[in-house]
Amino acid sequence: MPWQRLFEASARLPSGQALDDWFNALLERLGEVTPFELAVLGGRLAPTPGLAFLAGYQGALRLLWPSAPLSLGALCVTENRSVRPADMQTRVDRLSLQGRKDFVTAGNAADWLLVAAREEPAGQSPRLALTVVRNGDPGVRIETLKPLPLMPDVPHARLHLEGAHCERLAGDGWDAYVKPFRSIEDLHVLAALCAWLYGVGCDCAWPQALQLRLLGLLAGAAEVSRQCATAPAMHLLLAALFTEFKALKPELDAAVAGGPAEWASLWQRDQGVLEIASGPRAKRLEKALAALGL
Known about the structure:
Blueprint: H1 3-7, H2 19-30, H3 35-45, H4 49-64, E1 73-76, E2 91-93, E3 96-105, E4 112-118, E5 128-134, E6 140-144, E7 156-165, E8 167-168, H5 174-204, H6 208-224, H7 232-257, H8 261-270, H9 278-292
Helix pairs in contact: 3-4, 3-5, 4-5, 5-6, 5-7, 6-7, 7-9
């Protein structure tokens, strides 16, 4: 991580433009970066926590699929509020996709879509493949959903697939992609939001001790980003980062509330994104502790 770029970050990229245009402008500003650098530097340059989340999410996708195009992408897994393979109805057969995904982050602006689909023969246990389709291709239709109160600047969509031609990625769709992405996304989104807060702290002249503690969290996140996403040690270290952030949060909330009303309103609205996966994180920590004999 080129930390000097974080310390010397220039003015934030403006909001109010199309999501893909904002992301393209971010990539143009950053140049060639690693997935973790995209999360951190993108979070620092984001004008809102929602767009910081987007930078972290895109960084996580690129760690999951290193060959991803430079354009905006999305992971499509959820069906009927579930990500369990047994609950999925979307299927791939001879590189043709049929089905629906109900909750696709930034789906209406994404250029490419990673789609989890079942591929096992009839009567066998569910088995996933991860496939790639392009938004706008024949058989690929995006239905824009109503904005959520949380992060309204990052819309969500429903994906409809009707005989869409796809590319299948190598490996098991669950073990190699969907399952590890939960931890990869948690890490990159936390890093992006910490970088956003660090930028607010710089602009508002927060106490040096508070800014240093945010940098400590980012330094810890950089180390965790080097761990295997399926390793118990990674889950343990990730839980440690979230515990540190939780301990720091009352001080952060007070500091943001004491600054410009715009920052306070944005943070109050969007900070809940870090709590969405708290239940699964707790389960991963429990399994990690058992695996490590702790």
